C-alpha cells in the first residue's frame, strides 16, 4: 500500500475533506486544504474520487458526533472495494476519543486532535496498514503566520484564539481544544492582509471567546483597531462573544471603527439566574440585559443574535419562562436554539438529566416560536431604512436578483441589473420576510473592480 500511496502522491493523490461543526472547524479545514494543495495533493468533492478522506469532527453535540461516526464507518467500508484508501478523523471528536476511535470505527488510519492539523500531512504520508495516532493538543503558539489560501471568496475567516478557559458546565470545548491561547496581533494582521490581497473583503475574526483575546500586549479592541487600518478590507465581523468579557472599550471600538459591522453574536444560553449559575456562565440575567442596553445605546442599528439552551438539569417552568421573557425583551434578530443533552466528561453530565425529553421538545418549540416572531419584527422594522449591502451571489430562487448582506448581517435581495459580486451599494428596504429583506439599489459605494 505504501508503494501505491507514493505513486498516488507523485500523481497528486486526491483528497476529500468533510467538515462538521462550527466556523472554527471550517477554517481549520481550509488551512489543511491549503497545506495539502501546497504539497501536491488535489482536492475532490466526491468520496468515489478520493484516495484520502479526512473528516473534521465536532463534539459539542451528541448528534454531530453520531453523524460523523456514521460517515466514518461508511468511508472505512469503502476500503473493501478500494484498497489503499486512507481514512482519517481529526478535530474535537478525535481528541475526545483518542485511541478509542480505532475501536469505534476499526480501519481508520489517522486520528488527530484539533490543533494537530498541521501534522496531518505527515500522518497522511506515513499512513500504511496501521493507524497513526496523534492526539496531542499541540502548541498553538507554534502556528505562527501562514498566507491565506482560500480563493475566489469575498468573505474569509481568521482564528485569533484557540481553546477556552471558561468551563461552562455543559460544554466539552475546553476539554478537547485546551486552554485559551491568543495569536500574536502581528500574525493575525499579516494573515488578514494576505486574505485581502486574494480578494477577501470581509473578515470574521474567530475564537471561542474573542472578547478575552490578549496577546500579552494587545486586547481585542486593539486588534479591531489594527484590522480597521488594513487597506482594501471593507468589513470586520467577529464571533463568538462572551457577555462577561464584553468591555466598554470594545463597545467604543465598535462605535468608532467604520469597518466593524453592527452585529454581535452574544450567547445568553438561559434567562434564569439559577440556571446561569449552574451553567457557570459568569454573569447574571441583569448583567446581560445591562450589557445589551449599553451595546444598543452605543452601536447604532446593531443586530443581536444568540445561542439558547433549554432542558438543562433542574430547569423548571419558572426558569424557562424567564428565558422566554429575556428573549422578548432583547428582541434578537436570530438565534440558535438547542435542547440540552449531556456531554460525558463535563460537570453538567454529573447532574441528573431530569427534564423529560417531551418537555425539552415542547420548550424548544416555544423558544423557536418566540424567536421567529422577534426576527420577523426586527426585519419589519428595517422596512423604509437604507442599508449598506455587499453583494455576494445571485438569488437562488430568482437568479436575475442579486443577494448580499447588510452590515447587521441580514440578507438583502434586489433586482440584479448593474450589480457585480463584491459591489457595495446603499439599498432602500421596501419589504421584509423573516430572514430576507427586499429593496432597491440607490448608490454604488464601492465598485469591486476598483
Ligand atoms: S465559553 Fe463556554 S460554551 Fe463557549 S466554548 Fe468556552 S466553555 Fe464552551
Summarize the topology:
Elements: H1 2-11, E1 14-19, H2 23-38, E2 42-43, E3 52-57, H3 62-77, E4 86-91, H4 92-97, H5 100-104, E5 110-112, H6 120-126, E6 132-134, E7 155-159, E8 161-162, H7 173-177, E9 181-182, H8 185-197, E10 202-206, H9 220-228, E11 235-239, H10 248-256, E12 263-265, H11 273-278, H12 285-298, E13 303-310, H13 317-330, E14 334-339, H14 357-380, E15 386-394, E16 401-406, E17 411-415, E18 424-432, E19 436-446
Parallel strand pairs: 1-2, 1-3, 3-4, 4-5, 5-6, 7-10, 10-11, 12-13, 13-14, 17-19
Antiparallel strand pairs: 8-9, 15-16, 15-18, 16-17, 18-19
Bound molecules: iron/sulfur cluster (SF4).
Keywords:
five-stranded mixed beta barrel, OB fold (Dihydrolipoamide Acetyltransferase, E2P), Transcription Regulator spoIIAA, 14 helices, Rossmann fold, alpha/beta, 450 residues, six-stranded parallel beta sheet
Helix content: 25-40%
Distance between the termini: 51 Å
Low-confidence regions: 1-10
Helix count equals 14
What general form does the structure show?
A: globular
Strand neighbour order, sheet with most strands: 2-1-3-4-5-6
Attached small molecules: iron/sulfur cluster
Strand content: 15-25%
Q: Which structural class fits the helix and strand makeup?
A: alpha/beta
Could you give the count of β-strands?
Answer: 19
CATH class of the largest domain: Alpha Beta
CA radius of gyration = 23 Å
Largest sheet: 6 strands, parallel
Going by CATH, the homologous superfamily of the largest domain would be: Methylthiotransferase, N-terminal domain
Number of discrete domains: 3
Amino acid at each position: 500500500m505504501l508503494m501505491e500511496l507514493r505513486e498516488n502522491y507523485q500523481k497528486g493523490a486526491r483528497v476529500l475533506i468533510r467538515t462538521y461543526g462550527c466556523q472554527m472547524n471550517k477554517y481549520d479545514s481550509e488551512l489543511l486544504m491549503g497545506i495539502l494543495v501546497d504539497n501536491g495533493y488535489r482536492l475532490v468533492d466526491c468520496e468515489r474520487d478520493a484516495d484520502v478522506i479526512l473528516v473534521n469532527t465536532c463534539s459539542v453535540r451528541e448528534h454531530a458526533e453520531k453523524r460523523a461516526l456514521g460517515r466514518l464507518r461508511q468511508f472505512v467500508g469503502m476500503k473493501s472495494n478500494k484498497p489503499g484508501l486512507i481514512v482519517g478523523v481529526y478535530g474535537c471528536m478525535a481528541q475526545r476519543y483518542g485511541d478509542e476511535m480505532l475501536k469505534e470505527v476499526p480501519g481508520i488510519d489517522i486520528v488527530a486532535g484539533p490543533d494537530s492539523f498541521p501534522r496531518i500531512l505527515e500522518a497522511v504520508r506515513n499512513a500504511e496498514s496501521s493507524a497513526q495516532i496523534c492526539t496531542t493538543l499541540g502548541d498553538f503558539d507554534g502556528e505562527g503566520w501562514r498566507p491565506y489560501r482560500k480563493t475566489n471568496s469575498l468573505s474569509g475567516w481568521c482564528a485569533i484564539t484557540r481553546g477556552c478557559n471558561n468551563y461552562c458546565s455543559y460544554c466539552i470545548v475546553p476539554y478537547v481544544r485546551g486552554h485559551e491561547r491568543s495569536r500574536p496581533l502581528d500574525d493575525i494582521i499579516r494573515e488578514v492582509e494576505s486574505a485581502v490581497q486574494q480578494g477577501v473583503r470581509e473578515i470574521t475574526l474567530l475564537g471561542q471567546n474573542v472578547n478575552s483575546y490578549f496577546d500579552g500586549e494587545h486586547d481585542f479592541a486593539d486588534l479591531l483597531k489594527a484590522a480597521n487600518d488594513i487597506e482594501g478590507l471593507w468589513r470586520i465581523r467577529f464571533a463568538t462573544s462572551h457577555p462577561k468579557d464584553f468591555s466598554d472599550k470594545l463597545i467604543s471600538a465598535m462605535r468608532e471603527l467604520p469597518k466593524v459591522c453592527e452585529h454581535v453574536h452574544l450567547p445568553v444560553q438561559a434567562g434564569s439566574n439559577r440556571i446561569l449559575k449552574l451553567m457557570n456562565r459568569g454573569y447574571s440575567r441583569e448583567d446581560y440585559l445591562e450589557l445589551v442596553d449599553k451595546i444598543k445605546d452605543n452601536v447604532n442599528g446593531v443586530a443581536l443574535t444568540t445561542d439558547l439552551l433549554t432542558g438543562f438539569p433542574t430547569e423548571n417552568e419558572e426558569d424557562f419562562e424567564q428565558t422566554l421573557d429575556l428573549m422578548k425583551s432583547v428582541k434578537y434578530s436570530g438565534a440558535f436554539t438547542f435542547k440540552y443533552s449531556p456531554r460525558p466528561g463535563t460537570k453538567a453530565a454529573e447532574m441528573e438529566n431530569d427534564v423529560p425529553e417531551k418537555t425539552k421538545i415542547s420548550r424548544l418549540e416555544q423558544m423557536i416560536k418566540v424567536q421567529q416572531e422577534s426576527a420577523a419584527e426586527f426585519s419589519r422594522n428595517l422596512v423604509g431604512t437604507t442599508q449598506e449591502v455587499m453583494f455576494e451571489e445571485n438569488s437562488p430562487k430568482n437568479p436575475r436578483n442579486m443577494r448580499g448582506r447588510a452590515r447587521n448581517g441580514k440578507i438583502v435581495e434586489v433586482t440584479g441589473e448593474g450589480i457585480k459580486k463584491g459591489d457595495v451599494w446603499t439599498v432602500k428596504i421596501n419589504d421584509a420576510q423573516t430572514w430576507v429583506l427586499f429593496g432597491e439599489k440607490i448608490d454604488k459605494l464601492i465598485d469591486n473592480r476598483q
